Amino acid sequence: MSAPLIEIRGAGFSYGEQAVFGGVDLDVYSGEVLTILGPNGCGKSTLLRCIGGALALKQGTVRFENVDLSTLDVRARARKVALLFQDHTPSFPYPVLNVVSMGRTPYLSAFGTPSAQDIAIAEEALEQVGMSHLKQRPYTELSGGERQLVLLARTLAQQPAVILLDEPTAHLDFKNQVRSLQQIGALAERGVTMIMTTHDPNQAFLFPGRAALMRPGGTLVVGPPAKVITDESLSAAYGIGVAVLSIERRDGLGELQFCTPWYNWPHKK
Amino acid sequence: MRPVSKLRRCAILACSLCVALAQGFAVAAPETRQITDAAGRHVTIPENVTRVADPWHANNAMVLMLGGAATLVATSVQAKSQPWLRRLYPPIEAMPAAFNAAGEVNMETLIGARPDVILMAYDGSLPKWFTAVDSAYQIPVVLMPNSSLDGLKTTALLTGEVLGPKELGVAREFVRYFDDNIQRVMQVTGKLSPNSRPKVLHTSSAGILTADGRQTVIDDWINIAGGVNAATVAGNGRPVTMEQVAAWNPDVIIVGSAPNPQNRQAILDDPRWRGINAVKNGKVFVNPSGAYLWDRHSAEAALQVLWAAKLLHPAEFASLDVRKETKLFYARFFHYELSDAEVASILNSTPP
Amino acid sequence: MIKLRNVALMILLPLATLYASLFLGRFAVSPGEVAHILLGQFLPIPHDWPRSAETIVLQIRLPRAILALFVGAGLAVSGAAYQGMFRNPLVSTDILGVTAASGFGAAVALLLSQNAIALQIIAFAFGLAGVGLTYLLARVYRSTPVLMLVLSGVVVAAFFSALLSGAKYVADPESKLPAITYWLLGSLNAASVNSLMVALPPIIAGSVGLLCMRWKINVLSMGDEEARSLGVRTEWLKGGIIVCTTLITAAAVSVCGIVGWVGLVIPHVGRMLVGPDHRALLPATLSIGATYLLCIDDIARTVSASEIPLGVLTAMIGAPFFAVLLRKTRGAWQ
What we know:
The structure holds three protein chains of three kinds. In chain A, the strands form three sheets. Chain A has a six-stranded mixed beta sheet, sandwiched between helices. In chain A, strands 2-1-4-5 form a four-stranded antiparallel beta sheet, with helices on one face. In chain A, strands 11-12 form a two-stranded antiparallel ribbon. By secondary structure, chain A is an alpha/beta fold. In chain A, helix 5 packs parallel to helix 6. The model of chain A has no long low-confidence stretch (mean pLDDT 87). Chain A has helices at 44-52, 74-80, 96-101, 116-128, 144-157, 174-189, 225-228, 231-238, and strands at residues 6-15, 18-28, 33-37, 59-64, 67-68, 81-84, 162-166, 193-198, 211-214, 220-223, 242-248, 255-261. By secondary structure, chain B is α/β, with parallel strands linked by helices. Chain B contains 15 helices and 13 strands. Chain B has helices at 6-28, 57-66, 77-80, 83-88, 107-112, 130-136, 149-163, 165-189, 217-224, 242-248, 260-269, 277-280, 301-312, 322-334, 340-347, and strands spanning 32-36, 42-46, 52-54, 72-76, 97-99, 117-122, 141-145, 199-204, 210-211, 228-229, 238-239, 252-255, 284-286. In chain B, strand 3, helix 2 (57-66) and strand 4 form a beta-alpha-beta unit. In chain B, helix 7 packs antiparallel against helix 8 (165-189), helix 8 (165-189) runs parallel beside helix 13 (301-312) and helix 13 runs antiparallel to helix 14 (322-334). Chain B is elongated, with a radius of gyration of 25 Å. The model of chain B has no long low-confidence stretch (mean pLDDT 85). In chain C, helix 5 packs antiparallel against helix 11 and helix 12 crosses helix 13. Chains in contact: A-C, B-C. Chain B binds chain C through residues 78, 100-102, 204, 206-209, 239, 241-244, 246-247, 249, 257-259, 262, 265-266, 269-272, 274-276, and chain C through 25-27, 51-52, 54-56, 58-61, 63, 110, 113, 115-116, 172-176, 178-180, 182-183, 189, 192-194, 301, 306-307.
């Protein structure tokens, strides 16, 4: 096993007196998609933001290719880590290409504007997510799903070592969720390292890489999805009855794991 | 002889008492006289005026000059702040200022001063406080003309008439002196051809650029002194643009807004004025100010015509010594001996 | 992407308006005379024009027109930068209190009978101080959130407005009060070469600064957190934008009083013409703002014998225009 890309040791965070998580140890390897699961409020988004440097850890360190992330300035950090936020409020109707070019900002000089080469990189990123046909469209006119893919293209243009995605499918409809996940899968296949938080345990099974289940109290269980995501672990984490099932794909491409809760209707006996 | 009956004695006593009382009342009723003011009103004022309120800044010096200083009981804020008036008449510093520069009256202060009469300028419209004072409090208001040198003479005479016979005498003397001065100047300037009359701009430039135009006191003395008013607008203190001033291109600029020396310096420092004839030829002057501003409607207008004539036509008035005339005027009318330094200060419009 | 024709237009339009301003006015100077006067400064041609025309063109109209160009450009680009930084189309340059503070400074200078240049400097200093106060009030845990900036700006502006009312109260109603009132209405009639030398450097410095930051403003308008994740030092950037716009606005107010609606309306016009990308928008607003204010000033001094205050005209034209804009966009950005 090669050296981990990211090493997190003893990470802890609290809002004032309120502890969110503590004592988290995590390694992230190049080329994997690490999915962080857990119920709402368990701190997975906060953990992601700490890894990305948007929040500062109260205890512990995040080392990035052996460099402590907190010692890097904002620009250097942006060249290593790209963040895809779930709460994004669009402002001005910039053309899509313009928005994706913003991903090149960490590589520009203090007063610089994107060069022709930067624009080319942005266009290529758009191509990768299949949004090239929309490149001159005002970004505010896109649907939720299209906007998500454009932001994904922006993170690609940033050419980071790792992309952090915070609940990327949270506000998307069914079709767009699948579209997004397929794009993420395509990137994973190209070897892009990603850390993704999700509220849907099923997503952990889709990508090559490990899963990390965050339990209430802030502890983390990391391992291959099949090991981490079990009836017992999910029931304990979410506090509801869950079954992890496995079905045969109809197109003969193997098995597909998914989780389903045991619904309990109160009036049924 | 039969003794006068008791009844008859009482009757005689009663009648005498009545007559005596009647006489007494007749003596106690104040005597009044009528005076016609500039607005054509017939104003009833006491025969003997001992308490005068003068909201008209310029006129305070006139009252002082005519000898009525002792009667002044209320004045205006601006009159109180004239440095030379304070020097000539120290009691004005403690005098209540019932009127401010915006023409508003503090009724309590005014009534508290119990004036017999109020002297006020009249330019065609009544002051804001007129109705209240005239009808509600019934203090007589004498209105006096405000917009020409001839009107100034009428003002002097009216003020004198209000104050009393001795003061009226002084007023007549002043008017004679004034006319003499005008005559002295017009003898020379009356013969000047239009070409030799310089264009004179009288301006205030503090804050907003203004010029004093036709149909004003300023226009009058400019004409008497042998100049022509460069400002073709009508009225006092008209806002004008720099372009207008540049188009008029005056030959002489007289600065008449306090603080005059600083305002004159501001014009000399301002690059936009540099192309103007007056600035190029170094003919930018400060208007003197003493008991009041010489250039406005004050008693010292009598000196203003001399000063202006010498300024505009120094060659023709070489023998005229303005400093000497100032000393003479102050000695004769204000009963004050000016030192050389004081004369210089008045002519430069600086405080004493 | 940037058409040469558009660039040429953006440069030529203000210059053409400048030339026109030199012969427009209540005192007739023909375009030919203007050309001769201008050329006569550099070339040895015979001086066959009246001296008063030369004074009017070179000493009065030229400095005034140049000042109008720079003030208009500066206010417009400041408004555009603030609208980007605050992500809000209703933001104008007054939002952090610079106008109220400068206005009070000017009133103090007028009360103390200072000359025109001292007044400019005092008003400028007060403008900077006002924004400094707003910034200090808005600092929360080493950052200045946008909401805190806006609220602090409201407080500081209200404070200086109150002080201004006090100054008007104590001012002598015959000379000082009309001067203060007139100054507050906004006018370029005191423009001279000296006032150019005091006002132009801060305006130019601030505008150049904003132009340098135009790409970063795009990124900042996505949100503070996102901008940071894209490598932008948001606190430095916001501080830089505030410093530049305050330099511009304080200098503008100190030289011509309170002229509103330029920083609010011109950025919208710019967006309609070149789009929201600040790389094109900021230069465009410079050009449009310059031409706009110069035209308005020409109207202000030509239409009637006594000048119409500039602030009155910009409000009378700007407010209805903005209303039309609101109706057209129905509140959305475009």
